[in-house]
Amino acid sequence: MTTKTPRLTPQQFEELGKDLDALRQRLLDDLGEEDRKYIYDVVKVQRALEVAGRGLLMASSFPPAWIAGTAALSLSKIIDNMEIGHNVMHGQYDWMRDPAMNSKMFEWDNVAPGENWKHSHNYIHHTYTNILGKDRDIGYGVLRMDEGQRWNPYYLGNPAYAFALMVFFEWGVMLHDLEVDNLRTGRKKWSETAGVRRRMWHKGLKQVLKDYVLFPALTGPQFVATATANATANLVRNIWAFSIIFCGHFPTGVESFTEDETKDETRGEWYFRQMLGSANISGSPLFHIMTGNLSHQIEHHLFPDIPARRYPQIAGEVRAICEKYGLPYNTGGLTKQLSSVAAKIVKLALPDRFWRKPSNPGTRNVKEGRALRVA
């Protein structure tokens, strides 16, 4: 399927880069006390929810207390993962010079080691966004999420793999850094993963002991109920994080690129790829906070190290820049984007002959104004 993405001249790419660089600099110049207060307030809310949840679980033999405690704990884990952990580890608050908010020192409340994640996500994914063969987040080494991935019978299980990844998402993110697909094909040696495996083992064991031994033990006779509440909260967080992340990267209209297309990429062309390789989710201010503002995935991919609370503020300007150059601004409600992702997962499970039209012209080069593949 081809797109209507217009042909941009080298001059337009240069102007696009300048427009977005100017917007980025204006944001950097404006960072200050409001941003500092915001992240501290979010941390206070997250900690209050965790304390409330832990306190309620002390009486978890009383069903309403278990439900309320589990709900508070679920919200706490979502906020820690999305609005605090993800954004702090992107370096969005390094300028504050607060060790607790420093990307090199922060560790989030799940089994994926921050150091491993920062390499696979901050560096690989955000540098090579939607470049087939370079961005390992396309399918996470498990799924077929792009037409450019060659089909084989393994992908018949696409829906089942997606469901398993959703349920165990924090573990999937942890194992992602092993690059099992590269180990299987011989592109990477097992010995090269020693550091990654050591960090995985240390963080995973520590998190399991915390969630399923230490905190349950503190509730004494409520041990089993507390362990079950922790497992439920982790499940809720996993499903939420999976849904938001997949809606930001894989709905209909998000475009992918080849290595040849992005060779010798200019700043403007990099911005172009980020805008076309991402999608937004519309919603309320509270919804955006609960997504870590990754509901503004386009803005995040443009400016990953700018505090995410700024994304809603600049969304209108980014959309106007898209309109200026005739570029699409992919956005829609959660139901729309999620159903689009689900349909793609099912479609790409099947051999190409079941859905690809014979007249499909395929991928065409960005720099020559030829159409892109729609992921």
TrEMBL record:
Could you mention a single GO BP entry for this protein?
lipid metabolic process
Fatty acid desaturase domain: which residues?
65-331
- One GO CC term on file: membrane
- List the molecular function annotations (GO) for this entry: oxidoreductase activity, acting on paired donors, with oxidation of a pair of donors resulting in the reduction of molecular oxygen to two molecules of water
Under InterPro entries, the record lists: FA_desaturase_dom (IPR005804), Fatty_acid_desaturase (IPR012171)
Instruction: Write one Pfam family the protein is assigned to.
Output: FA_desaturase
Protein name as catalogued: Putative LINOLEOYL-CoA DESATURASE (DELTA(6)-DESATURASE)
State the organism named in the record: Actinokineospora spheciospongiae
